[in-house]
Amino acid sequence: MIYRFKSKAGADVIMLGANGEQVLRLLGREPAPDGLLALDQLVAASNALEHAVAEDEARFAQLQADADAAGEPVPKREGVTLRQRVWPLIELMRHSIAAKTDCLWSAK
User: Fold this and answer.
1) Residues near 79 by Cβ (< 8 Å), separated by ≥ 6?
2) For a 10 Å CB count at each end of the chain, is N or C smaller?
3) Dihedrals φ, ψ of 77, to 5°?
């Protein structure tokens, strides 16, 4: 499955199924084939994603600090981070707010 987040204010943001579902859950939404992030919800939605990124980075920093304190090899990030994954969607939300338009999503 592929999730497509759309807005008249910018280019579509596309995510694979598991990643799109993770983002929807971070937004307090249940994964669904179609949905709406109304204009009046976009500030809270982008704040929720930024908060999730901050928590993810704090958890990883603590993991690194714990490993370093224990004299173990410090882990490195592998793959795409949450920050990298949600940044395009946060930007789309910001553009949507500026253009005073909603964001939609669909899954196929």
Assistant:
1) none
2) C
3) -65, 140
Q: Which of 24, 50, 47, 38 is nearest to 96 (CA)?
A: 38
Instruction: Note the pLDDT tens digit of each residue in 10-56.
Output: 999 999 999 999 999 999 999 999 999 999 999 999 999 999 999 99
Give the predicted TM-score (pTM) of the model.
0.91
Q: Which of 10, 9, 4, 35 is nearest to 101 (CA)?
A: 9
Decide if 14 contacts 4 (C-beta within 8 A). Answer: yes
Given this model, what pLDDT does residue 11 score?
97
Residue 64: exposure state from Cβ atoms within 10 A (0-12, 13-18, ≥19): middle
Whether 26 contacts 59, CB under 8 Å: no
- Give the Cβ contact number of residue 69 at 10 Å: 8
Structure confidence at residue 101 (pLDDT)? 98
